[in-house]
Specification:
two-stranded antiparallel ribbon, mainly alpha, disordered N terminus, 13 helices, single chain, 2 strands, about 280 residues
Length: about 280
């Protein structure tokens, strides 16, 4: 019995014996020692080992932190006279994001239905669809833009296709997880009365997932605006060309203007997201 009790004792408590405390009423308890010092020690060792393996230098970081402050100081003093140069690339970035998000969300909806275990009972098809979606999500948008720039030539079209592909993977993943949590009673009732899978899903399931679906679409739009801002680095249009150019020329005040307008667009999308969510809910 004692051996069984010893086996159930956690390893930490076997190494660091709990403190035996006698209470005022004569009862005694064992108070385990805090694991926090051990957790912090392990975390410190992991951070130091990772820094050594990657060549990260804390000394360089602290020695050059003043230069970071100087650069941020220039960025936070944007050159407002540079704003007219930013408008056209910004509009292109928004157009790429909107078209890519709308197309990606529309394509992602049927794929999410096929990837839902409570809708699609065909196990091989389910696994294949989920594998494709996982593959789409695993590749960053910038890599897609590089590939499509080689296929379709440089320009906003390549960036838009990259955003579509990436959005499909993200929206379908979030949506099929939501579909698997809905009440299937109305869906099963409609199918039992002869409705097709599509008819039953549209009437019984779509109202349940519509707020989540719209919220996911708006979230992807916000993600895509930020992502499309750097697609110009690989020739896929948008603000990336300006960001790359201003960074190379060390024109940080101009870069600050670009980032300020980008922030305003993302903030506006966030406000629109809150408004749409409140109306749909």
């Amino acid at each position: 019995m004692a051996a069984e009790k010893k086996q159930k004792t956690p390893l930490f408590d076997r190494i660091f014996k709990p403190e035996h405390i006698t209470l005022a009423n004569g009862h005694s308890i064992d108070r385990p020692k805090s694991r926090m010092p051990l957790i912090l020690l392990v975390l410190l060792i992991v951070v130091i080992a990772s820094a050594e393996m990657t060549g990260f230098s804390f000394h360089t970081l602290f020695a050059r932190i003043n230069q970071l402050g100087a650069i941020l100081g220039k960025i936070f003093r944007p050159n407002f006279s540079y704003a007219p140069e930013v408008i056209q690339p910004l509009i292109e970035t928004i157009q790429m994001s909107v078209v890519g998000t709308v197309a990606g969300c529309l394509i992602g909806l049927p794929l999410a239905i096929l990837a839902s275990a409570n809708i699609n009972k065909n196990r091989p098809t389910l696994l294949i669809i989920r594998f494709i979606l996982a593959l789409l999500r695993s590749i960053p948008t910038l890599i897609y833009a590089t590939m499509f720039a080689l296929i379709f030539s440089l320009g906003a079209f390549a960036g838009t296709v990259a955003i579509i592909v990436f959005t499909v993977g993200i929206v379908a993943k979030m949506l099929y997880e939501s579909i698997e949590t809905i009440d299937m009673g109305p869906y099963e009732a409609m199918t039992s009365f002869g409705a097709t899978t599509l008819q039953a899903f549209w009437a019984a399931c779509m109202p349940q997932i519509l707020p989540t679906y719209i919220d996911d679409c708006m979230y992807c739009l916000e993600l895509n605006v930020r992502a499309s801002a750097i697609l110009g680095y690989v020739g896929a249009g948008g603000l990336g060309i300006l960001i790359n150019n201003r960074t190379q020329l060390r024109a940080y005040n101009d870069l600050g203007m670009v980032l300020l307008l980008l922030f305003l667009v993302v903030w506006a999308i966030d406000l629109l997201n809150d408004f749409v969510r409140s109306k749909v809910s």
